[in-house]
Every structure is written in C-alpha cells, then in structure tokens.
Design goal:
Layout: E1 2-6, E2 13-15, E3 41-43, E4 50-54, E5 59-66, H1 70-79, H2 90-106, E6 109-110, E7 113-118, E8 127-135, E9 138-139, E10 142-148, H3 155-161, H4 181-197, E11 204-214, E12 220-229, E13 235-242, H5 249-256, H6 266-273, H7 282-287, E14 295-303, E15 307-315, E16 321-328, H8 335-339, H9 352-365, E17 374-380, E18 385-391, E19 400-407, E20 414-425, E21 445-454, E22 459-467, E23 475-488, E24 491-505, E25 513-526, E26 536-550, E27 561-571, E28 580-592, E29 598-609, E30 622-624, H10 628-631, E31 638-640, E32 656-657, E33 660-661, E34 666-675, E35 679-680, E36 685-698, E37 710-721, E38 725-734, E39 748-754
Parallel strand pairs: 5-8, 10-12, 13-15, 16-18, 30-31
Antiparallel strand pairs: 1-4, 2-3, 6-9, 7-8, 11-12, 14-15, 17-18, 19-20, 20-21, 21-22, 22-23, 23-24, 24-25, 25-26, 26-27, 27-28, 28-29, 29-34, 32-33, 34-36, 35-36, 36-37, 37-38, 38-39
Length: 758
C-alpha cells in the first residue's frame, strides 16, 4: 500500500480520481492524509513537492489454532497455506478461514465459527502473529433418510445400499452416524451402482437435500431427502459378436455370463468383458494366449422399451511375442531364485495369466513385499513384441528368531522356546567367508534350529533343512532330526526322530499340485505303562506320501485361494518294529468378502488303523486342543490344534478307557474365520480375527459321531515381525467341557502360538 503525505504548496490543487478535492491552503488540512491515487492532474503554474512514504504489510510470524483437538490442528496445518514470512492480507486470512470451515464441514460438523485475531505487530521486524479461535460446532447425527420415487425396491433396501451413510437408530446408539460430505457422495454413488446392477440403466437422482431440523426438544438431527427416478429395468434380448475368429460366439457368451432374458447388470458386464477376479473374462481369454493388442468395442442398443441388444466387435490383431523377462530390486536373493519362479519364458506368446502366476509365486516365497511386486510391460506395437519387467522390493529380513514363554499348567510348568529360522539360506556358501552377512543367504533354502525346555524336565532339540529346487529342477529335498525328553514324577518319555523327504511339482491336473514322499524313523522309550503305551523301547519305519494342491496367495494371511492335502502313512510290520497306517484329509478355502475382509473355512479328517493284530503302534493316536507350543512336550501322539481348549497333559480332547485318556483313532475338525489385515507393512503386520472351531476324537467307528463335537468361538490377533516371525494370540470361549478333567464349559482360554496357521 502507498501512503502519500502532501507538503504545503501555496496555490495549487491536486485532483485525484475518485477522491474529493482538497484545499491544501486550509490549515485544517495541514496534516498527513492517506490516499489511494490512480492519476494526478496538476492545475496551475506554481510548483510543489510530493513526498511518498511506503509502508509494507506486516509479515506472518506464525499462526495459532485454538479451541480444537490436537489431531485436528495437525490435519489443518497440512491444509492451511499460510507460510511464515509472507504478507498477512485479508484475502489470505479468509482463505484460511474457508479451509477450516471446509475441513469441519467434511467431517460432519455444523455451525462452525472462526474468529480471526490479529496479534501486535513487531515494528522492528514487521512481523505479527495471527490467532484463529475455532468453535468446531456440533456433529449432528443423521436421523432420517427419505427416498421418494422408488417403486421396485423398499426404502429399507435402498438405505442399506447407501453405505457408509447410516441413520442413527437404537441398535447403533453406541456409534455416531454423522453426516460427512465424502461419505455422502460415496453413498449416492453406491445407490447408483446398485440400480445399474439391477438393470436400471436410466436411473438418476433428480434432487437431493441435506438439512438440519429439530429432532426433539433436546437435540437436532440431519435429514437427507432423495428424489429418484428408477426408469425401466432392462433385460438382455440379443448378444451378437463380430470379428471373433479365435473363439466361437458360444464360448464368448459363456465368458460374458449373460443369456437371453437376463436382467442386465452393468458391473458384471464390464468385469466379464474386461477383467474379473477369476480371469475368466473375455479379455483374459485372448490375452492369456498372446493377443495383447486385441481391442473390444461394445454397442448397447435400447429396444422395445425395456430390452437391450448387445453387439460386441472384437479386433483381435496379432499375437504378441515375449522377447525379454527381467527384474530389479532383489538385493539379497540370487537371480536364479527369482528366475525359476517366473512363468514367463522369452520366445513364447504373451500371457497375462503367466504374469499373475509369477506374482503369486514371488509373493509366496516370503522374500519380497507382496504389495510391491509390480510387473511392467514394455511393448512394441509395430513389431508385435513385449518385454516384462518385474519390480521387486526385498523384505528387510526373511530370517527370524522366535522366542516365547508360557505356562502349560500345573503338571507342565513354565515353557521356554527358542528357534532360529533362516528362510533364504545358502548351503553352498557355508565355506565362503565373504558370504557371511551374518549368514550365507540368497539361494532360497531353509534352515531351522530349535530348542525348547520347561521347568518340569522337558527338553526338545531339532534341526531341519530344505532345498526347494534340487539340481535346478522343481524337486524339493529335505531332512529333519529331533530329540525330545520328558520326565516328571514317575512319568518318563524319550523320542528320537529323523526323516528325509523328496517332493516334486506336478503338471496334472494343474501345476498347483505337488507330491511329497517322506521316509521316517522314530524311536520311543517309555519308562512305565501310560494308558495303552507299553514300557520299553519301540521303533517304527514309515513311508508317508502326500498329494497337495496349494493355490494360496500368501502363506501368512491368504486373501484368496485354497489348500487341499491328502496323505497316507504306512509303517509296515517289519521284524522288531511297530506297525500302523494313517490317512489324513485337510481342506481350507479363503475368499475375499468386502474390501480387505477375508473369510476362511475348512475341515480336517483323520483315521488310524493297523495292518495286523501284532506289534500295533499306539503312539500316533489323535488328541485335540491347544497349540503346537503347548503340545510339543506330549510328542508321542498326534496333536491337532483346536482353539478354546488347553491341550497338553490332562486337557486334551480324547476318548477314554476306564477313565484313562487313550487318544482317538478317528478325528473330525471344522473351522471358520473372518479376519481383517489392519496393518500391512514391511515392519509389521497386524491381523485381528474372529473364529469358530469344533472337533472331537473318537475311539473307533462304533463311537464315531460327526455331530458330537466340542465347540469354541472367540477372537484373536496375529502379529508378524521380521525378527520374531508370526505370533498368534487367541482368546476362545468353549461351549463344551471335557469329562473327568478340569476343562469345564463356559470358560475362556487364552492361547499363544508361533508360526503360520495356514
């Protein structure tokens, strides 16, 4: 701003446009005046002098937000554009006020008031502080949502489709259903999508109103009124295809998922034409066999009032050849480990399914952050070629150290367990000093070292190694050795176990299948009679064959996929050895529900028998309850996890003979879980869940009853830390007790487990 201070010319006038004329000869006007002058015209011949003094606007020292929460202050400081050192103008202050009002309006606050207080100006530095005294107002709850014009769907049905917009009702009294602009926009779009899914392509919201009213004498409420026009519900009349030479029209119709007379679902149409979760869409059909450059033009024609004809023109173009497959970001894992898990082969036709499968294989390794595995295409349309580049983000640590403690009950005492898992080990670099950082790694092998002790005389030591690719082929090799010893009072057990495994990937029925064969030797030493166990040493040599199909996309917390496992173990009646056979069938399925919410269900079945009447082994009977951490000290039996029940000595679910728990020859287990990955980062994963599990063990087929089950339900959380691995904490309520034990119904059981549950 310019300040003009005029001196005393004798007989002159200054005429400023827009400003009254001033007689400068009048003594009353001999004081400085401030003018805004656009033009100066001099009248007369006498000279005069003009002195111009310039005064700057004060600069911002800082601003303060009063009267609001700390979190709100933090959010607003990220949005307000006032910066220290810039001029403080009325415009900049009003802009900040508008930002504050908009912030609270979007959060559902009404009647927000902002007072702007200018602080004193520091004349030496020309700096000032501005204070915004804020009254956020009131978060008024949504009380009514009225919809007019709907004929095919009830108000209740439509209100349920407007999530996250909800009315405040007595069953939602513990939450505040306030109005927020972003949620309101989302709710209206969800309503539009709902109608289009049900064939109402002409649906529109004619008018919408949001206002505050007096809900009762004590409080106000927000009312939302929508006036809609549903329009006709369209049905599919004809579907025609043009330009398709690779697939016949009936195959494309099946992929599109519509038949004559079906209600037209726009979302389903777009997904099945372009891309869907199962990769069964029309685009995937073509791109999975190399037609990367194919194009689809759809024409939806409205006919006869409430019908549509769908005409789809496919421009197939030529097959794209894959020239190069590369990857970046693997700083620790060797290139060979990454390359052998890629399903794209240079020189073959482009395949989107191969890219998706490659991403899944890399994610299940556990060496890279799954969310950051990003394939990129570099294609040449003229030459019909394409390159695939995978961007990888190596996890901070694939190895982990597990240390845990717990209390296994009066008979067991304190449990201490420690285990080192090297999940990306390199055996060939054991004697290479430069590769020890701190251990040789990068070849994708797994080495595990574990020890567990308790205050009651239990000890366990184990070592395991696995090579997933032996001699450069997808054939696995592994060995495990363990020694366990338990002594308490008059009880004493000792076990030595060693096994060698060979596995191979199968191509039929599909390449998710694998077969694993395990040759195992076990030696048990029992000090005295324990149920059906006879005192003395007993040895077994068994061969176990496993047929497994595993399509899980993540071993820690799968978002989709399934896992089916069928195994048969036989210990033949060799001289001096115990004999038995055992069959197991397990199945689990994971499906996404809404957003990140995932539902899991599964079942397990087991049966144990003998090949003759002599030398029958009693060591592999089934006991249910607890977790592997609790069950490890009862190593001479087959322990099945079951939340809500303690497991271990005196607490497992087992049939009894003469009040002696002897274990079952048959068991059933069913489980269901809903989980939500609340935190998913490289540093930590936090996965809360709710569960329901049932199961039981039976003496034989005469007592087998698949509906006689021990039931439990509850909640838990899984925490994954790179150093400690996966820790599973559950709190289960059991509905049934175990006779002749202290495990009673109606109690809660806290359990802790280490390792992946899937």
């Amino acid at each position: 701003m310019l300040l003009f201070f005029l001196a005393e010319p004798a007989h002159s006038q200054v005429v400023a446009p827009g400003v009254p004329q001033i007689d400068l000869s009048n003594p009353l006007n001999n004081r400085p005046r401030q003018f805004t002058i656009r033009n100066i015209n001099l009248i007369g011949t006498e000279s005069y002098s003009v002195t111009i003094y310039v005064t700057e606007q004060p600069r911002l020292e800082d601003y303060e937000l009063r009267g609001i929460k700390r979190s709100h202050r933090r959010d607003l400081r990220e949005q307000i554009t006032l910066l220290p050192g810039f001029a403080v103008t009325e415009s900049s202050k009003m802009q900040a006020v508008n930002t504050i009002n908009r912030y609270y309006r979007e959060k559902g606050y009404w009647y927000t008031n902002v007072d702007v207080i200018d602080g004193e100006v520091d004349t030496l530095r020309n700096r000032m502080k501005v204070i915004f005294d804020i009254d956020p107002g009131e978060r008024i709850q949504i009380r009514t949502v009225e919809i007019e014009g709907n004929e095919n769907f009830s108000d209740r049905k439509l209100r349920s489709q407007m999530k996250p917009i909800k009315r405040t009702t007595f069953w939602r009294s513990l939450t505040r259903q306030t109005f927020e602009r972003d949620e309101y926009i989302e709710g209206k779009q969800n309503l539009i999508n709902f109608y289009k899914k049900n064939g109402h392509l002409d649906f529109r919201i004619k008018e919408d109103t949001v206002y505050v009213y007096d809900h009762n004498r004590r409080r106000q409420g927000v009312a939302i009124n929508l006036t809609i026009e549903e329009g006709p519900q369209y049905h599919v009349r004809n579907i025609t295809w043009e330009g398709n030479t690779v697939y016949p029209s009936d195959v494309l119709n099946q992929s599109l998922g519509f038949e004559k007379g079906d209600v037209f679902n726009q979302e389903k149409f777009e997904m099945n034409l372009n891309i869907n979760r199962e990769s069964s869409d029309v685009t995937s059909l073509y791109q999975n066999i190399g037609y990367l450059f194919m194009r689809i033009d759809e024409d939806i024609r409205f006919v006869e009032g409430d019908s549509i004809d769908i005409h789809i023109n496919i421009i197939e173009d030529e097959i794209a050849k894959l020239v190069e497959v590369s990857f970046t970001g693997n700083t620790k894992t060797n290139d060979d480990v990454v390359r052998r898990n890629l399903r794209n082969i240079p020189g073959t036709n482009y395949s989107r399914a191969a890219i998706q499968r490659s991403v899944r294989e890399l994610a299940t390794l556990g060496y890279f952050v799954p969310e950051n595995i990003l394939p990129d295409l570099d294609y040449n349309y003229e030459e019909k070629t394409v390159n695939v580049i995978y961007s990888l983000d190596e996890s901070a640590s694939t190895d982990n150290f597990e240390f845990s403690g717990g209390f296994g009950g009066r008979q067991i005492g304190v449990i201490l367990s420690a285990r080192l898992n090297f999940n990306n080990f390199s055996a060939q670099n054991l004697f290479n000093g430069e590769a020890w950082r701190p251990l040789p790694s990068g070849d994708g092998q797994k080495l595990s070292l574990g020890v567990q002790v308790t205050g009651r005389g239990f000890q366990n030591y184990s070592i395991g190694f696995q090579e997933p690719w032996m001699f450069g082929r997808p054939n696995s090799f592994g060995f495990n050795t363990s020694y366990s010893f338990y002594k308490f009072s008059t009880q004493r057990f000792e076990q030595f176990s060693s096994s060698v495994s060979l596995g191979r990937r199968l191509q039929w029925p599909d390449d998710f299948f694998q077969q694993i064969n395990i040759l195992q030797y076990q030696m048990f030493d029992v000090f005295r009679n324990e149920g059906l166990l006879e005192p003395g040493r007993a040895s077994m040599i068994s061969l176990k064959s496993i047929l497994e199909r595993n399509s899980l996309d993540n071993p820690l917390s799968p978002n989709n996929g399934s896992k089916l496992s069928l195994s048969l173990e036989v210990a033949p009646p060799l001289p001096g050895f115990k004999q038995f056979y055992k069959g197991l069938l397990t199945f689990q399925n994971h499906i996404p529900v809404v957003g990140k919410l995932v539902a899991t269900s599964g079942a397990e079945f087991g049966y144990m028998g003998w090949l003759g009447s002599k030398d029958r082994s009693q060591f592999q009977r089934f006991y249910l309850g607890g977790t592997p951490l609790q069950q490890q000290q009862v190593f001479y039996r087959d322990n099945i996890d079951l939340k809500g029940y303690p497991g271990g000595f005196g607490g497992s679910i087992s049939p009894a003979i003469d009040s002696e728990f002897v274990g079952g020859r048959i068991y059933n287990k069913y489980f269901a879980e809903i989980r939500y990955p609340a935190v998913s980062s490289e540093q930590v994963q936090l996965i809360p869940y709710i569960f329901a599990e049932t199961g039981n063990a039976y003496l034989d087929f005469n007592t087998w009853d698949p509906f006689n089950l021990k039931r439990a339900a509850g909640f838990g959380v899984r925490v994954f830390l790179p150093i400690l691995g996966l820790i599973d904490l559950s709190y289960g309520y059991r509905f049934d007790g175990i006779p002749n034990t202290t495990v009673e119904p109606g109690n809660w059981e806290f359990l802790i487990n280490i390792g992946s549950p899937f």
